[in-house]
Amino acid sequence: MYSKEEAQRLKREFWVAFAEKYPRKWILYDTKIKDFSFKFYVDNKKAQVLIDIEMRDGEKRVAYFEKLESLKAILEEDYIKNLVFEKNHTLESGKTICRIWVELNSVSVSNRNYWDEIFDFFNAKMDALEGFYLEFDDFIKDV
Predict the structure, then answer these.
(1) Chain CA centroid to CA 15, Å
(2) Whole-prediction pTM value?
(3) Per-residue pLDDT at 4
């Protein structure tokens, strides 16, 4: 078990190593849609590539989610398989968002032996999601 400081240091090393292996600028928060972002997540059980739709206005949030959901067949056939679409995802804070994600299970940020597998997963899945977004952003933004 790591101390809090050791765990933070290890996570920093993880993200630096990822940036060194795949040195590129990701879209992440720069979608030109407020509260619509791409995210990487990793812990000691899984790694995820996510799209979070976090608008406070529930109707607007669901409208963006439904736009993406309407493209699900194209997204899964041409870009990325095994996506999970969750219209009402509750964060630890209690906030409800819409979330779309793909997951790699049985990996750990604390075990360096998994890092290359996680890095490759992050790169492949985020690259696919960004490619999809860049292809369909005009349609998605038209809410």
Answers:
(1) 15
(2) 0.94
(3) 85
Please give the Cα distance from 46 to 88 (Å, whole number): 21
CA atoms within 13 A on the CB side of 103: 12
Domain enclosing residue 23, as ranges? 4-141
Residue 80 pLDDT: 95
More confident residue, 52 or 143: 52
State the angle between helix axes of 58-70 and 115-141 in degrees (0 to 180), rounded to the nearest 10.
100
In percent, the amount of the chain with pLDDT more than 70 equals 99
Q: Residue 22 is encoded by which pair of tokens?
A: 């795949």
Contact, 98 vs 62, CB < 8 A?
Answer: yes
The pair of three-digit structure tokens given for residue 83, joined into one six-digit string = 């996506």
Query: What angle separates helix 115-141 from helix 4-21, to the nearest 10 degrees?
Result: 70
In the chain, how many domains are there? 1
CB 30 within 8 A of CB 38: no
Asked whether the predicted pLDDT for residue 22 surpasses 80, the reply is yes
Cβ proximity of 118 and 15 under 8 Å: no
